[in-house]
Design brief:
Blueprint: H1 3-8, H2 21-33, E1 56-57, E2 72-77, H3 79-90, E3 95-101, H4 113-122, H5 130-143, E4 156-160, H6 170-181, E5 189-192, E6 201-203, E7 208-209, E8 218-220, H7 225-234, E9 248-253, E10 270-275, H8 277-280, E11 286-291, H9 298-301, H10 304-308, H11 311-316, E12 320-324, H12 357-369, E13 391-394, E14 399-402, E15 411-417, E16 425-426, E17 436-439, E18 447-455, E19 468-471, E20 481-485, H13 486-491, E21 495-497, E22 503-506, E23 512-515, E24 524-531, E25 534-537
Parallel strand pairs: 1-9, 2-3, 2-11, 3-4, 4-5, 6-8, 7-8, 11-12
Antiparallel strand pairs: 9-10, 10-12, 13-14, 14-17, 15-16, 15-18, 18-19, 20-24, 21-22, 22-23, 24-25
């Protein structure tokens, strides 16, 4: 901190010198009952009614359907992203893909709240590194605590981070990419990081402005994250239903899937599932599990997440059941005042393993949903030929492709050209194991041309798919946001206090953030760093 600011910093008596070890521990303990960990996904309480959605039915038991267990996929936002990754890694024998919005690497917190809140959210004092987390996963797999990590080589992975997200920093999600890259083919991992989204569930039709941090943390960015996730994990789907949906949102008793009371593991009494009419009629179906973030549980915000996250519209036309398990806020043991999923160990030390209380409970729900499986294979019908339905997405240096699965295809081959009409070159170095592909190492603002071929069991390739032209996004503005309590801005050296120990100011800009005292641990401010030791209030443009 500049010397003139140190001279005026008086609050908490040691403005840029960190509190004593005892004070830090007291602060961390108090955070369990205040709202520090809330900032993982600080979702304001609001209760919007469902639009174009069927009403939830007061049903106390979850149905069983003709579901193929090995077609299960998962996704989540923030603490839900951490849980989705935990669930996908622990149960990799049945999970074929995972989507993570504003999340971090598997096992990041290492059973420690302070590590979770600082290192695994804003990289303070440093970001986590992937290699020890990779080793932990390998050791747990060897002991049988999680499924073999060799399964991860075939998982489809979709990652998202908005450049205005100051709750979970870009550097944390980058480590999640590195974690998966240690196990998976890079062609299976797409990372979308070029949108001005704040920390939020991103939609294309519902929510507040894209770069706003606050409200209910569901933001309209003109981007259908749910649809992009599902199509990267499953391949091109039928168009979503934009009208009245055919199915129902079923409320069910989560207590049926845990031996004790759900509240004893910070789960709500009731969860929800969207069941399309086709699945209710016992047609072949699949399951996608969508994990909400902190303070997004239904007891806090009603139907906002399970009605407006964007999954149900796609599920309705694609024989897909969406399971929305629910947490609840608990202030006694386990201490989880904001209803976060357990990604730091508030329930037990094996929270990231198959035996973790919440993971095992949600797994029991998924297994129950598959209770009427009739033995269908999931193999696409039709005849072997060129892929169709080629769709695409892009970020600054990456392109994602997805297509309709082809009958008789053992794998796929992807070809790229740099100009229209040019002869394309094969770019996959290993067989593409499903109907999506992530290309990386590209140039921003550049158009590329792709075709895809199906490959049969003998290695014979089909003719080309139709060509799709994809332009990578422009490089986004440099943005380094932090959405933290004012206490944390001070603790992490982005703010200082006046000589009277009353007011808190941003380092560099000297903008007023608020007052010291109890409010400093609950009031949140979005600061962005514009240069060394210089912070201003507000998002990047």
């Amino acid at each position: 901190m500049p010397a003139h600011e140190k001279a005026h910093a008086g609050a908490w008596r040691r403005p840029m010198n960190k509190p004593s070890a005892v004070a830090v521990r007291l602060r961390i303990a108090r955070s369990r009952c205040a709202s520090t960990i809330a900032n993982l996904s600080m979702l304001a309480l609001s209760a919007f009614t469902m639009t174009g959605m069927p009403h939830a039915h007061a049903q106390t038991s979850l149905g069983a359907y003709n579901v193929k267990l090995s077609e299960t996929t998962v996704s989540g936002i923030s603490s839900g992203a951490y849980m989705a990754v935990q669930f996908a890694v622990a149960n990799s024998s049945i999970v074929k893909g995972v989507g993570a919005i504003a999340g971090g690497p598997y096992g990041c917190a290492q059973d420690d709240l302070e590590t979770a809140y600082r290192g695994c959210m804003v990289g303070y004092p440093s970001y986590p590194t992937a290699s020890p987390l990779v080793s932990t996963a390998q050791n747990w797999a060897a002991s049988g605590a999680i499924d073999p990590t060799s399964n991860l080589a075939n998982q489809k992975v979709w990652l998202f981070h908005g450049y205005n997200d100051g709750v979970v920093k870009t550097g944390v999600t980058n480590v999640l990419y590195s974690f998966y890259a240690a196990f998976d083919n890079a062609a299976n991992i797409f990372y979308k990081d070029n949108l001005p989204a704040a920390h939020s569930q991103v939609t294309d039709s519902w929510g507040q402005a894209c770069n706003v941090t606050g409200g209910d943390f569901v933001n309209n960015c003109g981007y259908d994250a749910a649809g992009q996730i599902l199509q990267h994990l499953y391949g091109t789907l039928n168009p979503r239903n934009t009208g009245t949906l055919s199915g129902t949102i079923q409320q069910f008793d989560q207590g049926a899937f845990y031996s004790g009371t759900p509240a004893s593991i910070s789960m709500a009494q009731y969860g929800y599932a969207y069941v399309p009419a086709s699945c209710a009629a016992q047609q072949p179906c699949r399951v996608h599990v969508a994990f909400h973030g902190c303070k997004q549980y239904a007891d806090a915000i009603g139907s906002d997440y399970y009605a407006h996250a964007g999954y149900n519209e796609w599920a309705d036309t694609n024989n897909l059941i969406v399971l929305y398990p629910q947490t609840i806020a608990t202030t006694s043991l386990p201490t989880n005042p904001n209803g976060c999923w357990d990604w730091w160990g508030y329930n037990d030390s094996h929270y990231a393993q198959k035996s973790g209380a919440q993971i095992a409970t949600v797994m029991a729900m998924v297994q129950h949903l598959a209770g009427n499986y009739s033995g269908w294979s999931g193999t696409p019908g039709g005849t072997f030929g060129a892929p169709t339905g080629l769709g695409a997405d892009s970020s600054t240096t990456r392109v994602e492709l997805h297509w309709t699965p082809v009958a008789g295809a053992a794998s796929y081959a992807v070809y790229r050209a740099s100009c229209a009409g040019c002869s394309p070159t094969k770019i996959n170095t290993a067989p593409v194991n499903g109907p999506s592909f992530a290309d990386s190492g590209l140039t921003a603002g550049t158009t590329y041309y792709y075709v895809v071929r199906a490959v049969d069991s003998t290695g014979t390739e089909s003719t080309n798919s139709p060509t799709v032209a994809v332009t990578t996004a422009a490089t986004p503005p440099a943005c380094d946001p932090y959405y933290r309590t004012n206490y944390d801005h001070w603790y992490e050296s982005r703010a200082y206090t006046d000589v009277f120990n009353v007011n808190i100011y941003a380092v560099g800009s000297n903008q007023w953030l608020g007052y010291t005292g109890p409010l400093s641990t609950t009031d949140n401010t979005l600061l962005r760093q514009t240069s060394s030791n210089y912070y201003v209030i507000g998002p990047c443009q």
